[in-house]
Design brief:
By secondary structure, the chain is of the alpha/beta class. The protein has a single domain, classed as Phosphoenolpyruvate-binding domains (TIM Barrel, Alpha-Beta Barrel), CATH 3.20.20.60. It contains eleven helices and eight strands. Helix 2 packs across helix 4, helix 5 packs across helix 6 and helix 7 packs parallel to helix 8. The protein is elongated, with a radius of gyration of 22 Å. The termini are far apart. The structure holds 3-methyl-2-oxobutanoic acid.
Amino acid sequence: MERKKVTIADLQRKKQNKQKITMVTAYDYPTASLVDQAGIDTILVGDSLGMVVLGYESTVPVTMEEMIHHCKAVSRGAKHSFIIGDMPFMSYHTSVERAIENAGRFIKEAGCDCVKLEGGSEMAHVVKAIVDVGIPVCAHIGLTPQTATKLSGFKVQGKDAESAKALVQSAKDLEKSGAFMIVMECIPDLLASMITDQLTIPTIGIGAGKDCDGQVLVYHDLVGLFERFTPKFVKQYINLSPQIKDALEQYKKEVDEGVFPGPEHSFAMSPEEASKI
Ligand code: KIV
């Protein structure tokens, strides 16, 4: 059967039918192509690219230009997965007009299908403004890495009743503002389950337990390409870094020893032609 491009209606239907939604990050053409071929529903071009690809200490320094550059590569590589462009820190905070303009760039220039932005009830008016001009928005609550300093670090959110209530309210406000999906990062399983039950839009968890409507993982964590640290919620499905290092060391050894390139990797010329040079 011919595979069709995933739509918001497909994601909504999955929630209604209690089928799980899959999301993985990608930041470049070959990865996007692999994720797409694996049948993953949605690709998040996350600002996590700042840490796992660009080597920054956090996601805070990531710029609009960096995001657009990587989103363009992903949209060239993914033909079926629904592509989410992550709005970087300060690209949607200074004014609603600026937020709309920047969201528009993800759609017009970079070929994304929607944008994602971090924040709870306080960001509901921004979500509404972007949705009102026709751009779908995925919200992101709980641990919001762009404002981790304000949250006093990378900690589980909503552990006590008061902060849990605030997260429930945020989720409801964001849904009311028109967000079509919501990422919940690092919150207790029970709270994530309660929010999922109370919303009509799909919830995607990362460190939020199995009852969310879907799950997201950062590609470099999933395949073992990020060695700086591994959060508790990550499951590494393959550890590629040692295998890639082995291959690189083998290549170096073979070049050093004159083993590579062999005749099978080289182009022949007859001695007769060579003698005419
Ligand atoms: O940037 C990112 O990769 C994210 C996920 C962790 C949800 O926001």
